[in-house]
Amino acid sequence: MMNNDCKEFLIDIGANLTSKKFNTDLDDVIQRAQEQKVNHIILTGTSIKSSLDALALAKSHNGLFSCTAGVHPHEAKHWNEEIKNEIVKLVADNLVVAVGECGLDFNRNFSSKEDQEKCFIQQLEIATQIKKPVFLHERDAHTRFIEILKDFRNQLPGVVVHCYTGNLEQLKAYLDIDCHIGITGWICDKKRGDQLRAIVKHIPENRLMIETDAPYLTPHNVDKKPKGGRNEPSLLPYVVKQLVESRNQTASEIINSTTNTAIKFFGLNSYC
Ligand SMILES: [Zn+2]
Predict the structure, then answer these.
(1) What is the pTM of this model?
(2) Do 206 and 266 contact (CB within 8 A), yes or no?
């Protein structure tokens, strides 16, 4: 796994940089990310608007960004034929490296379960047609989520369950159907991260990727709390720091393997 020809840099596979919270200082955010060797960032699309914005941003920063396009389960109540067609159009762009963020969130239920399932299934269908990987969100919905996912798994080129927060049994179920796992600053959370810290060593090196989910989930192990508590890609090394401890690997090993895995998974070869 370590025989790679990549330079040592990090890839943030999920950042919501089209959020309003980055409106005024995105250039500084980008510069700080590059100072920390976060050399490629996949912008997360969670609605039509944020997917369009993410693609526009990716186009204006050649090489630094790629993006996903999809509709988050919180937004599932808005899903309709028109939005579906927009997503189909968006995911055809080369800079869109995955369909999503999509999935099920029965934790907050901002959309009904029926709407969430329909929106999730139709995006899985889109991914099988366009043959791009999916960037998935699952919160408190494991049983139904994996049932649906299994129906499509064989036709999907890749599946990443982003911001993994579940237990060991659920993790094994995802690994069994060849899913990749995205780890965020959740693992650094003093209380909520306990379970994840204990089980993260069960993720094979070639299935593990890292992300900030910025502006959310600021790592608790930061040396200095960022202003307003906002997370940003330059804080990705703190996720690595926690992984070093919890997986008993070196930082170089974590960085090289997660970067190589992301390049392979999302087809980012031109940045390597
Ligand atoms: Zn998510």
Answers:
(1) 0.96
(2) no
Q: Report d(CA 268, CA 266) in Å as an integer.
A: 6
Residue 6 alpha carbon to ligand 1 centre in Å: 28
User: What architecture (CATH level 2) is domain 10-271?
Assistant: Alpha-Beta Barrel (3.20)
Long-range pairs for 131-134: beta carbons < 8 A, 24 or more residues apart: 131/157, 132/91, 132/96, 132/97, 132/98, 132/99, 132/157, 133/97, 133/98, 133/99, 133/157, 133/158, 133/159, 133/160, 133/265, 133/266, 134/98, 134/99, 134/100, 134/102, 134/158, 134/159, 134/160
Selection from 113, 164, 119, 158 nearest residue 138 by Cα: 164
**Ligand 1 centre from 76 Cα, in Å?**
13
Alpha-carbon distance 241 to 224, whole Å? 15
**The pLDDT value given to residue 272:** 57
216 alpha carbon – ligand 1 mean position (Å): 10
pLDDT tens readout for residues 19-30: 999 999 999 999
The predicted structure's pLDDT at residue 2: 42
Give burial (CB, 10 Å; 0-12/13-18/19+) of 38.
buried
Please give the distance, rounded to the nearest whole angstrom, from the Cα atom of residue 162 to the centre of ligand 1.
6
What does the pLDDT read at residue 3?
A: 43
